[in-house]
Amino acid sequence: MSVVVEAMNELLNFPETLEKLMHSSSRHNDAAQTLRGVGGATFPADILDTPKEYIFYLDVPGLSKSDIQVTVEEENTLVIKSNGKRKREEGEEDGCKYVRLERRPPQKLTRKFRLPENCNASAITAKCENGVLTVVVEKLPPPPKPKSIEVAIS
Q1: Deepest of 2, 20, 35, 138, by most Cβ within 10 A of its Cβ?
Q2: Which of 117, 129, 107 is nearest to 58 (CA)?
Q3: What is its main location (predicted)?
């Protein structure tokens, strides 16, 4: 009989248990969002490794080049940020108001990439075109290989 009572008790407390799980997972998500950037949103990115450079392709729909900052912190961290402000649409006049706003405004986004040691941080270029930000990071030439010198044994 006690097994049936325990099972009923677990079923009746299920919503409470579910709520505890949801709260604990939301705390975990908040921490993960903090690590990813403001609001938990990031720029989707593709990174291409070529023989002479690294090329970062980031989707930034609705953002212009003036909305985006590309910087290098601590000599090896590439940081890409947006300010996330909605601009007034053309044709919007005084006395007019939106009846419905369904398109999401650009969010404050931050994305950080740790650059490899062979990057030339002073030779980074970026361009924003058609909703795609392209950041090119040049590679340093490989260090010269150590020469081996044969020493004669007397």
Answers
A1: 138
A2: 129
A3: cytoplasm
Q: Using alpha carbons, select from 63, 35, 34 the residue that is nearest to residue 132.
A: 63
Residues of 123-142 as b/e, b for ≥16 C-beta within 10 angstroms?
ebebebeeeebebbbbbeee
Q: How many CB atoms lie within 10 A of CB 119?
A: 20
- Residue 144: per-residue pLDDT: 84
Q: Which whole-number Å values give the CA distances from 141 to 12, 66, 111, 122, in the listed order?
A: 67, 32, 27, 14
Residues 6+ apart with CB under 8 A from 55: 47, 48, 134, 135, 136, 137
Q: Could you tell me which of 104, 130, 108 has the C-alpha nearest to residue 43?
A: 108
**Is the model's pTM score more than 0.70?**
no
* Selection from 15, 41, 17, 20 nearest residue 107 by Cα: 41
Closest CA to 57 of 67, 44, 66: 44
| Arithmetic mean of pLDDT, 16-29 | 41
Give the Cα separation of 23 and 33 in Å (integer): 15
pLDDT in tens, 26-57: 443 433 332 333 334 577 899 999 999 999 99
